[in-house]
Amino acid sequence: MIDPGVHLMIGALIFPNMDQCDFTGPFEALARVPNSTFVTIARDKSPVRDLKGLRFLPDVSMEDAPKLDVLLVPGGYGQEALMHDEDTLAFIRAQARHARYVFSVCTGALLCGAAGLLEGKQATTHWTAMEVLRYYGATPTHERVVVDGSMVSAGGVTAGIDGSLVVVSLLRGSTVAEEIQLYMAYEPKTPFTAGSPDTAPAHVLNAVTEQARAITEERIKTARQYRALRDRAAGTN
Predict the structure, then answer these.
(1) Which among 127, 138, 191, 209 has the fewest CB atoms less than 10 Å away?
(2) Is 190 helix (H, G, I), strand (E, B) or coil?
(3) Which of 135, 123, 120 minimizes the C-alpha distance to 159?
(4) Domain limits at 58?
(5) pLDDT in tens, 18-27
(6) Are 163 and 25 in contact (CB under 8 A)?
(7) Of 117, 142, 146, which is closest to residue 131 (Cα–Cα)?
(8) What angle in degrees, to the nearest 10, is found between the helix axes of 159-172 and 20-30?
């Protein structure tokens, strides 16, 4: 828990074709952290469309972003387009050097991995991408939220809400987190039991796995390239 008198800067990196719930779910909690400022950050200040077309207007560009105490990195299909984007990866690395926490949601963990933040860490991500984490030096875990030092990772999409409440507790204590949870009326009682691969009916699991097959294969290919480059570099040192 951080001294309540210390003002905190919290920011989210947003990008085209992200999954907006990876961002907006955590925003609900993180924007309510007492004595804090929340900013949205993108490559520039042009509107950003999520993968279903919802538009967001960034507050600042990556170049003009302040030093953050917490950096939120969402995921979504658009994450894959940034895996070789050195401007984005450099921004994540630079913020991570002084941030108290880097908080990834869903496949935002893969962006953190490409930035070199997952080496030797335990982490989680969307279940379709879980096998990809090992290529970035992480130990995958199926926990919904994982805290390993300054790295906090949450699983797929809605797990970001759980993760954000964990981050709030780390910043301002469990009572503040519970107050925010109550304000949000966050008490999930889902009408179905298909929320994880372990509980989904086989035909549902097969259908969603097939829907994600193409992007999963792209992610694995990108991760293998990353690992090969890292291993090659290590071999020359």
Answers:
(1) 191
(2) coil
(3) 123
(4) 8-236
(5) 999 999 999 9
(6) no
(7) 142
(8) 30
Residue 128: strand, helix, or coil: helix
2 assigned to some structural domain: no
CA distance 149 to 160: 18
Task: Tell me what the mean pLDDT of segment 31-60 comes to.
Answer: 98
Mean pLDDT, all residues of the chain: 97
For residue 153, what are the β-bridge partners? 104, 146
Q: How many domains does the chain have?
A: 1
Q: Looking at residue 188, which CATH number applies to its domain?
A: 3.40.50.880
Q: Which two tokens stand for residue 235?
A: 């071999």
Residue 1 lies inside a defined structural domain of this protein: no
Domain membership of residue 102 (yes or no) is: yes
Task: Find residue 56's DSSP bridge partners.
Answer: 48
CB distance 74 to 22 below 8 Å: yes
Q: Which residues are catalytic?
A: 106
Q: In sequence order, which ranges of the chain are alpha helices (DSSP H)?
A: 20-30, 86-98, 108-114, 159-172, 174-184, 202-211, 213-236
Contact (CB, 8 A) for 69 and 100: yes
Residue 25 forms part of a structural domain? yes
Does the pLDDT at position 236 exceed 70?
no
Least confident range of 13-17, 108-112, 171-175, 190-194: 190-194
